[in-house]
Each structure stands twice: as C-alpha cells, then as structure tokens.
Amino acid sequence: MTSQRTRDRLIERLLEQGITDKAVLNVIRGTPRHIFLDEALSHRAYEDSSLPIGFQQTLSQPYIVARMTELLLANGPKERVLEVGTGSGYQTAILAQMVERVFSVERIRPLQEKARQRLRQLGLHNVHLRHADGGMGWKERGPFDAILSAAAPEEVPAELLEQLAVGGRLVIPVGPVGKQQSLYVYDKTEDGVEEMLIEPVLFVPMVTGVVVA
Ligand code: SAH
C-alpha cells in the first residue's frame, strides 16, 4: 500500500491533472503521506483524495497540496513562509523541503502536537509551529515571502496581506462554508495588491479562536 509503485501512480495522476513543477512532484514523491494519517486510514494515503484527521478537519488532497505549492513558488524561491492551518503537517512537510523556513499556525492543539511529532520523525527542523488563530498571521515572525492558507475565510484577512513582504505571494481559498469557494493568489507589489482567481476548491472554514484539547 505504501510501495514506491503506489506513490509513483499518485505522481502520474498529478501530472495528468496539470501539475508541471518537477521540484514539487519530486518532493511529493519522496514524502511519506501515510505517516500523517491514523493507522486505520493509512492504506488510503496515496489516493488523490482528502482524508479525515479528526476534529472535523481533513488532510488536503495531494492535487491541491501540489497546486498550492506550485503557485506559491512560481514567482521565485521563497525564504520565510507562513502557513495557516498546520492540520496533519503534510503540507508543512512539503513546504519545509522547498523553502528555507516555515512558520505554521494551527488553532487545534492536539493536531498541532501530532504534526510536531511527524515533522520531527522526518527530520524537518526548519519548521516553527505556533498554537494560535492563524487568521491574525504571525506578526512577530513576519514579513513573509509567501503565505499559504489551508483553511478558507469568507474574506481575506487584512493581517495576512499586511504581513506579506513586497514581492511576496499569498495563496488562499476564499468563500462561504460548504459552498462554492475559489482559490486566489495575491501578489504584493510596490503599488498595492494584485488578485488572481485560480480555480474552484472546497476547504474547511477558517475559524477564529483556539481549541486547547
Ligand atoms: N494542510 C493541512 C490542512 C488541514 S485542514 C493538511 O493537509 O493536513 C485545515 C486546518 O486549518 C485545520 O487543521 C484547522 O484546524 C486549521 N484552521 C482553521 N482555521 C484556523 C485558524 N484561524 N488558525 C489556525 N488554523 C486554523
């Protein structure tokens, strides 16, 4: 179930769906997704689908992880990256292998703790985790070259745009809970912010406040 053949099949699927960035595909090929799931679900880890991780949250579909990572890195290498919604830590692990430093915020403490263990298990030490409401960003550690949100707000939080460096890029799903949402890219320039609509998506909502246990 976690054989190289199964993993290669996932990469073929991503290619068919239009993921072209070789570096992204290589990192996905080399990153075990099954360790980010509970054992009962790990046999489904290399399917191209989102999977439950508890607390009504999901591990994102590989296609969407690949697409968002590709978009995030498309306009040049990134050093400091903020992620909102660590969840299982899978997207975090992909990012950590492609940028210098990842700052990842999660509001549900038990998810964050599991993610921390898995990232350590993979030897990814360039990740800084924080238990907080990521809709507020992480001001002390900004500005960021790139920001990726794995949860969908109804409107883009001003804090995230504020904490983006000039030349930086925000990749974020936006839209109402359970209804049509869209993936957007925001580029911060000297003159302001440019918005690009990418494609329809379905994400868990960005929620305010934190959950301790
Ligand atoms: N990339 C993750 C996605 C997890 S789902 C993965 O593949 O595992 C999205 C995550 O965003 C959930 O864990 C949810 O708890 C978190 N989240 C939602 N709103 C948030 C907020 N305001 N601040 C931080 N995390 C948030």
UniProtKB/TrEMBL annotation:
One of its GO terms (biological process) is methylation. GO terms for cellular component: cytoplasm. It catalyses: [protein]-L-isoaspartate + S-adenosyl-L-methionine = [protein]-L-isoaspartate alpha-methyl ester + S-adenosyl-L-homocysteine. Its main location: cytoplasm. Its EC number is 2.1.1.77. It holds the Pfam family PCMT. SUPFAM superfamilies: S-adenosyl-L-methionine-dependent methyltransferases. The active site is at 60. The keyword Transcription regulation does not apply. GO terms for molecular function: protein-L-isoaspartate (D-aspartate) O-methyltransferase activity. It is an enzyme of class 2 (transferase). It is found in: Cytoplasm. Keywords: Cytoplasm, Methyltransferase, S-adenosyl-L-methionine, Transferase. Belongs to the methyltransferase superfamily. L-isoaspartyl/D-aspartyl protein methyltransferase family. Catalyzes the methyl esterification of L-isoaspartyl residues in peptides and proteins that result from spontaneous decomposition of normal L-aspartyl and L-asparaginyl residues. It plays a role in the repair and/or degradation of damaged proteins. This is Protein-L-isoaspartate O-methyltransferase.
